[in-house]
Amino acid sequence: MCGIVGYIGKNQAAPILLEGLSKLEYRGYDSAGIAVYNNNELEVAKSKGKLAVLSEKIDGGKKLGGNMGIGHTRWATHGEPSDVNAHPHLSQSGRFAVVHNGIIENYISLKKKLESKGFEFISETDTEVIAHLFEYYYKGDIMDTMIKVINRVEGSYALGVLCVDYPDQFIAVRKASPMIVGLGDEENFIASDVTAILKHTRDIYYLEDNEIVVLKKDSVKVYNTDKEEVKKEKFTVDWDVSAAEKGGYEHFMMKEIEEQPKAIRDTISPRIKDGKIVLDDISLTEEDIKNINKIYIVACGSAYHVGVVGKYVIEKMCRIPVEVQVASEFRYCDPIVGKDDLVIVISQSGETADTKAALEEAKARGARVLSIVNVVGSAIAKASDDVIYTWAGPEIAVATTKAYSTQLTVIYLIAAYMADKLGKISKEEYADFIKEIESLPDKVAEILKSKEDVQYLASKFYNCHSIFFIGRNLDYAVSLEGSLKLKEISYIHSEAYAAGELKHGTISLIEDGTLVVALATGKNLFDKTVSNVKEVKARGAVVMGVTTEEHEHMDDVADYTVKIPATHEMLLPSLTVIPLQLFGYYVASLKGCDIDKPRNLAKSVTVE
Ligand code: F6R
């Protein structure tokens, strides 16, 4: 996730900005830059790659004079990692320099408007729009300009802005993207998280949405969009640096679990406009969709589990046959795939060796490749015909959570988009589906509110030697992910089974006290799974049922029940998976496992 730091004070800004950015490196980034006010102009230095490259370029900051500046580490969203796409961005005349975290959803229309007024864009970023907008609206008052700009942009932002006409102050604002203000002694700061400034101060203001802050060397004033001053409460941070990196969480995994409502919202909201799914990112036409013979979904691990969900959802909604395969098998199975087939490749990192090789195999056979990727400009993204990015931000914990969840939402968008183009969904069903997709972030947040209930269950079962996850159809697909989450971080043996398949052998492993996590969320198959619950209970299993608020009957058969909100049948995996992620996390935590870095695993598997 991008990082911001800004400084004004008694010291030279550039070294402080570099040092602050180094504290944000843990968030993941692919380029970095700083801008300072020096000798009546704005000087900018930026580089693709590690912060060390930037630091070397400007001799640890010594080459850039001045006591005020803004800095940024970028995690590419719009436009690949490059020097020119790195922040800060300058407005056309160089009067303004801007750093930005977040996503400007209406940047395409704003860009068109600005281009028609003669503005020339040099980067592919959404942020450059903001820099030019400042110049476009500027009539000599930076506060008025800031208000006009934020009234015009849609989406999420944390902005730090320098203006050549204001040598002794800079201005910042945030909406739906974090930013704090650090209060020092003859120096003040902004930062996307406290880690960046902890060395200098522990006194901070938290900014609310659309509060505008004006920072001078010895004053900080916060205003609302009516230009009225807002009295802020000062907080004193008592975290140590490592807790601060994790936003106060003990592990990145829990931080990322909690980030899911935002990650899902960021992924879906730019793609739903006026009740319609808009996939601007892809060139697949209605004609192309109508001509698809078969869809393959190819991926590894959790991304493969998203594919299993995808098979059920796309087949059900689009009536196109879907085959889902793990990439390491696909690449060597002489796949029957050709020019009339669409291959959907899913990867968080965009670098997984087997997935990339499978993609190349598919392309060599003439198939069209659409990838769902989290890392912009990654190898898989570059090699694909079309890419839909998940906007999960960097995932640090080895066990994926928010990437999995955002990949699911892209699958739903693709399924509904294609079903609409194919005429397989009525207007009412389409509208209902979109309404339900839009409600997912709130429903995920609601489940997270009762995470202590899952923690309690984990405390009952963390000593188990073997745990089974069962379910049918979509519940089976989520069982695969629940089981993987548990085993990879807690080292407890676990298997996921299609509930109806259990009695063909595996049920012999059930004995007194074996925990079976039974997922029964869908309406049609609820009774069928309940029958399987009865079968395992009759053989001594202890059952933890996961179902929706609509199914009271689960309480009668299961020993423990976890309830999730109801939603559209096809979207249930997004909710069902949340308690399972929490269960894996809490079990691993109780066992004292190294949750963020489980043994034998790497975040990005770039070898075969
Ligand atoms: C499990 C997990 C892995 C990845 C798999 C694919 O929690 O994270 O199973 O899903 O290694 O990685 P990507 O998505 O980067 O291709």
Automatic annotation (TrEMBL):
Which residues carry out catalysis?
2, 603
Q: What residues does the Glutamine amidotransferase type-2 domain cover?
A: 2-218
Q: Which residues form the SIS domain?
A: 285-424, 457-598
> Mainly localized where?
cytoplasm
Q: What CDD domains does the annotation carry?
A: GFAT, SIS_GlmS_GlmD_1, SIS_GlmS_GlmD_2
* Any single GO CC term annotated in Swiss-Prot or TrEMBL for this entry: cytosol
The subcellular location is: Cytoplasm
Cross-referenced SUPFAM superfamilies:
N-terminal nucleophile aminohydrolases (Ntn hydrolases), SIS domain
One matching Pfam family is SIS
Keywords from the UniProt entry:
Aminotransferase, Cytoplasm, Glutamine amidotransferase, Repeat, Transferase
Q: Which GO terms describe its molecular function?
A: carbohydrate derivative binding; glutamine-fructose-6-phosphate transaminase (isomerizing) activity
Which reactions does this protein catalyse?
D-fructose 6-phosphate + L-glutamine = D-glucosamine 6-phosphate + L-glutamate
What are its E.C. numbers?
2.6.1.16
Recorded hits in InterPro entries, A to Z, give: GATase_2_dom, GFAT, GFAT_N, GlmS/AgaS_SIS, GlmS/FrlB_SIS, Ntn_hydrolases_N, SIS_dom, SIS_dom_sf
Q: What does this protein do?
A: Catalyzes the first step in hexosamine metabolism, converting fructose-6P into glucosamine-6P using glutamine as a nitrogen source.
Q: Which HAMAP family match?
A: GlmS
Q: What is this protein called?
A: Glutamine--fructose-6-phosphate aminotransferase [isomerizing]
The scientific name of the source species is Hominilimicola fabiformis
Taxonomic lineage from the root: Bacteria, Bacillati, Bacillota, Clostridia, Eubacteriales
- Name of the gene this protein is made from: glmS
